[in-house]
Amino acid sequence: MAALIEQEIAALPPKMREIFVLSRKENKSHKEIAAELGLSELTVKTQVKKALRILKSRLGLFVYVAFLLKIHQ
Predict the structure, then answer these.
(1) Other C-beta atoms within 10 Å of 37: how many?
(2) What is residue 19's predicted lDDT score, i.e. its pLDDT?
(3) In the prediction, which pLDDT does 72 show?
(4) What number of other Cβ atoms are within 10 A of residue 39's Cβ?
(5) Cα angle at 39 between 35 and 43, to 5 degrees?
(6) Is pLDDT at 73 greater than 70 in this prediction?
(7) Alpha-carbon 49 to chain mean position
(8) Cβ atoms of residues 6 and 58 within 8 Å
(9) pLDDT tens column, 1-43
(10) What is the pTM of this model?
(11) What is the three-class DSSP state of 38?
(12) Residue 49 CB: number of other CB atoms within 10 A?
């Protein structure tokens, strides 16, 4: 499952992926990310929110299919 999550993170658009990784993996605040990348805090917040929405929709389907496959084994 971890590999699947990493694969989906890697599939995000480059800038969105960079912001997401800084936020979730490096535990930086939106303010820190904005300063580091020269963006507004609102842009950072929006990009993180969009990344989470994308990951939730993509991974939600995979989790559902995995669940169905496990039941039918």
Answers:
(1) 15
(2) 97
(3) 52
(4) 16
(5) 125
(6) no
(7) 8
(8) no
(9) 778 888 989 999 999 999 999 999 999 999 999 999 999 999 9
(10) 0.81
(11) coil
(12) 10
Burial class (CB in 10 A: 0-12, 13-18, 19+), 6: exposed
Largest CA distance in the chain: 51
- Residues belonging to the chain: 73
H or E segment and range at residue 47: helix 41-71
Higher model confidence: residue 32 or residue 71?
32
What is the mean predicted confidence (pLDDT) over 40-63? Answer: 90
Closest CA to 47 of 25, 71, 24, 15: 15
Q: Which two tokens stand for residue 58?
A: 């993509």
What letter represents residue 27's amino acid? N
- Report d(CA 14, CA 72) in Å as an integer: 38
